[in-house]
Amino acid sequence: MKKVRLHIVKYFLSSITFFLLLFLSNCANEIAPTGGTKDTTPPKLVASYPANETRNFRAKKIVLKFDEFVNYSLNVAQIQVTPEMKPAAKFFVEGKKIFVDLPKSLDSNITYSIMFGNTIKDINEGNPIQDFSFCFSTGDSLDVCVLSGSSISLNDMKPVENVMVGLYPENTDYSKPFYFTNTNKEGLFSLRNIKKGRYIVAAFEDKNMNRLFDRGDGISGFLDSIIFLQDTINNLKLNLFPSPKGKIVESYVPRGNKLDVAFSHPIEKVSVTASPKNDIEFATLNETRDTLFYWYKNASPDSIDLGLVINDSTTLLKIKNQSNKDSLSFKKGRGIIGIAPQSLFIVTLSNPIEKIDPTKISITEDSTKTIETRASFLKFEENRIHFSFVKKTGSKYIVLLGDSCIKDIFGHYSKGESFSFSCPKEMETGNLILKLSETDSSFLIIEIKNEKDETVAKKYLSPLQKQIRFDGIAAGNYSIVGTFDDNKNGYWDSGNFEQKIQPEKKVVLKSTVSIKSGWDIEAEINPKNNTEKLSTAKEKKNFTNSR
Description:
Number of strands: 41
CATH superfamily of the largest domain: Immunoglobulins
Radius of gyration: 35 Å
Shape: elongated
Number of domains: 5
Strand content: 35-45%
Largest sheet: 9 strands, mixed
Distance between the termini: 123 Å
Helix content: under 10%
Number of helices: 1
């Protein structure tokens, strides 16, 4: 009887315990587990065998030990060993250690640098060690010279990332550099542990990662003079330029009798030969010299073979003849646009112009006043018409082009078309006056660029001029770029890496100039040493934009 009672009591107590736990679990608040503070600290080197900067190095393996586990997917392609080891060193990760297997023999009396860059990361958050490197010497001393600097593309005046910068011994054949590294996102580079001596500095896009300059497209650059490294050289500037080959990236026939050919970068010159021979043809490069516009008329019922001689290199193209579908049309449709009073009003057509009849053109101001159309107001080149009549701020204009007022090179006549535009009030624009700080014998191409890096104005400055004026520029921030036009051809000429020809020099004359509405802004420029000096702006009462 006692045993039965004991079982009943145990059953009763266990039931109470079960229901109590169930009640407590239902009443408890659910809280998601937290992972703690996010790890933002990269791995830290705690030991290395042998030690960093070891002299008389004889080891066959390097072991780098860190304070946390390292991401095993080490990007070996980004690790640079300079000077080059043959065969190449091998890298692998095991837990908190990185092992570097070295070749059986190394050159004597050489300081080797292993530049890991940002490839070493922790295994959890991927935090990288910034610019980590390890060096050692197989001789009694460690080479300590340093070379650092920046690179910029003269094509667009912007820093260039991932360009190989190499140091070559004097009298080199530019085979492979003895020391090398790559530029970062800001176009900066740094080489350390260099032996004292005289070097040639060159840079180029190493697309196939063989550290050899390959002919073709891409950008490159070099220093004219040999540098003598004894200690440290900082702020070395490398101006990079595109290859003169001008690789074709696209060619297409947008309509009827016109072919557009786009190049990978600006080219110096191009000529076209057609087979069968064209009855009519007209070729021109665009302003940036990276696109060829080619108009043609050919009696062939089928395709046409074109030979393009681009900077003395010939390329063959085959295009389908569609010239019977072509006609003359305007590229700008109707609609109010705003231009500065001193600016030209430009109309663009689909084909090059042969002649214009001024008597079939009328211009009205504010819908009431008729402006007499004179031949001197009109100037056409290629497929553009420039209207240069006097305009007023705050006024609206309508330009009416009557039927058949324009004839193109193919004998097509234009249909009637009208264009409307307005001139902004003087408070919406400002003027920029650039003054030379000293007498300069250079011919300069001056470009005004907006914050989108678009050229909004361009003028030529000859040695006889003391200043140059840009009127009617919309209020905003601009930069000023100057090109030294050494051969006086009116455009920037690139260089040639293989022939060791430097490009024409470009400089940022002003990194920032603020144009204020209704003001004349005067800026002093010094093209020789590129110093910036901005003078005090004149107030609105001196503003002459409405003349």
